[in-house]
Automatic annotation (TrEMBL):
SUPFAM superfamilies to which the protein is assigned, alphabetical: Composite domain of metallo-dependent hydrolases, Metallo-dependent hydrolases
Keyword terms, alphabetized: Hydrolase
Coiled coil: none
Top-level taxonomy: Bacteria, Bacillati, Actinomycetota, Actinomycetes, Cryptosporangiales
Keyword Ion transport attached: no
Organism annotation: Cryptosporangium arvum DSM 44712
Protein name (database record): Putative TIM-barrel fold metal-dependent hydrolase
Length: 454
């Protein structure tokens, strides 16, 4: 295929030839070969396809068939939405995005009053917690289960709150036929609309069965897929590339730096870099100390780096550990941060500029479905750092739109290598309607004209 008259690296009038899945020629005035399909870029920018470096495909698929509670403003609004969902549902009621700061505290009793006998589960905005009503607790056998994470009252009865028990819950709520493969096609179509040609699925604790389910639903026409996987799980799945070992830190069960260093060391010894989830200051401080003790390997990453206290950018740079940040949260959750995050830490939220200045490799991700699915929303948010209500969070951390876009073209797993449209590079490309400077004046997925894969 010949793409004509594109803007490549800021230069207009460039032709790009793709063959065998790779870019084979880049230059002005390439002659069209007999029968070669051509695309006239009409001066639009040609970029490498975007890589969304941290997504959760199964949760994203499930979120599409759930009631979205993220925009609820009051407890009464929450009650109304959940009650309406119960009236519509013919099986489980499933809600996502609940947060106590707007919708109020939640346990089985409040849910029982809303949905009665209909089994109901509501996920906390962070993904760390599910709340079940009594019908759902009965159906899943939670009262008699010994699995970790089932919160109980002093009498030993489940409160309805289940912490990080997703696998356990999924096994007990799965429909007879898994709808995931069909939904994956819809997710791929949506990603294509955004110019995404590569996903890294960051779901922790992935089993071989989960990898098989992904592989079974995946097609070569979908974005290329990197799957984070614990050491010891299978690697030989066609179409899928193995990613680092995802480690989730939780303030309620935070290991000591020494304990975490041992876990990291084991993973490194098994040949797997680590991707460590750090959203609070405590988690990041613990992780940095642990990695200093264990010693880093190429490909180690911090997921989110939600709060980076002073001094830690330099330590991350010295460790050469990449940060995969989520600027989209500033737009989506910024006003909740203003309410919930104490004043000094607010300036340390989801930094970008200070990390880059310190020499840290920074890449970006949407964390869909926990953040907005559109990477261009994240690009805009990294540029303005504006919350929904218009407050600018950490103005010194703003970056130019070009720098923000580059966060989706940077490879955190290979030393921060920046992908480019160049000979030998994969033929996974994103063509915009306009030159880059025009597109970035108002970053939006509307600017994406076409995506080429292989
Ligand atoms: Zn995540």
């Amino acid at each position: 295929m010949l793409i004509r008259r594109a803007e490549v690296d800021g230069i207009d009038g460039i032709d790009v030839r793709i063959g065998g899945g790779r870019v084979v020629e880049v230059g002005a005035g390439l002659a069209r070969r007999n029968g070669e399909p051509t695309v006239n870029a009409r001066g639009g920018a040609l970029l490498p396809g975007l890589h969304d470096h941290h997504v959760h495909l199964r949760a994203w698929a499930a979120a599409r068939s759930s009631v979205r509670l993220a925009d609820v403003r009051t407890p009464a609004e929450f009650d109304r939405q959940v009650r309406d969902a119960a009236a519509r549902a013919d099986g489980w009621v499933r809600g996502v995005g609940w947060h106590e700061s707007t919708a109020g505290d939640l346990d089985r009793h409040r849910l029982d009053a809303l949905t009665g006998d209909r089994p109901t589960r509501i996920q906390h905005r962070t993904g760390a917690l599910w709340v079940l009503n009594s019908a759902a607790l009965a159906r899943t056998g939670a009262a008699g289960s010994t699995v970790d994470g089932i919160e109980r009252d002093p009498a030993g009865e489940p409160t309805g709150r289940l912490w990080r028990a997703d696998d356990w819950l999924r096994e007990r709520t799965a429909p007879a036929r898994d709808p995931f493969p069909a939904t994956l096609a819809a997710l791929a179509a949506e990603a294509t609309r955004f110019g995404v040609t590569r996903w890294t699925d960051a779901t922790p604790g992935r089993s071989d069965a989960e990898t098989d389910a992904l592989a079974a639903g995946w097609s070569a026409r979908y974005p290329e897929l990197v799957v984070m996987s614990p050491p010891g799980t299978r690697t030989d799945v066609p179409g899928l590339r193995r990613g680092p070992h995802k480690i989730v830190l939780d303030d309620r069960t935070l290991p000591s730096p020494g304990e975490l260093a041992a876990i990291i060391g084991e993973s490194h010894a098994a040949g797997s870099p680590v991707a460590v989830h750090c959203v609070t200051a405590e988690q990041l401080v613990t992780f940095v100390a642990a990695l200093e003790e264990a010693g880093p390997v190429r490909g180690d990453r911090v997921e989110h780096a939600g709060i980076v206290p002073p001094g830690h950018a330099a330590r991350l740079a010295a460790l050469r550990v990449a940060v995969v940040t989520n600027p989209g949260f500033l737009a989506d959750r910024g006003d909740a941060y203003l309410r919930d995050v104490p004043a000094p830490e607010r300036d340390w939220l989801y930094p970008v500029r200070s990390l880059l200045d310190a020499g840290v490799t920074v890449a970006a991700a949407t964390d869909v479905p926990f953040g907005p699915a559109d990477p261009w929303v994240a690009v805009a948010a990294a540029t303005t750092r504006r919350t929904g209500s218009g407050v600018v969070l950490g103005p010194d951390e703003r970056v130019s739109p070009a720098t923000a876009l580059a966060l989706f073209l940077t490879d955190p797993d290979h030393g921060g290598h920046r992908r480019r449209v160049a000979v030998g590079q994969p033929g996974d490309l994103c063509l915009l309607h306009t030159p880059l400077a025009v597109a970035l004046a108002e970053p939006s997925a509307e600017q994406v004209r076409a995506v080429l894969r292989d």
